[in-house]
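Following up on my earlier thread - several people asked me to post the actual chain instead of describing it. Fair enough. Here it is, all 54 residues.
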Amino acid sequence: MAKKGNRQLYKVINKSTGTFYVTSLNRLNEIPKTLKKFDPKTKKHEEFDVKKFK
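Reply from S.P.:
Thanks for posting it. Predicted structure:
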């Protein structure tokens, strides 16, 4: 049975290092194209691209 609600899974990927997070975002709000997250490989906050999780 499918999950009910407005939250969908998104994969947040850093293209340069390949690091990614899986997070859920509210689909009723505008989904950002990028998010600032911590990258453990570079040990800095960097821009991550937001893609739908399949």
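Strands lie at 7-13, 20-26, 34-39, 44-52. That should answer part of your original question.
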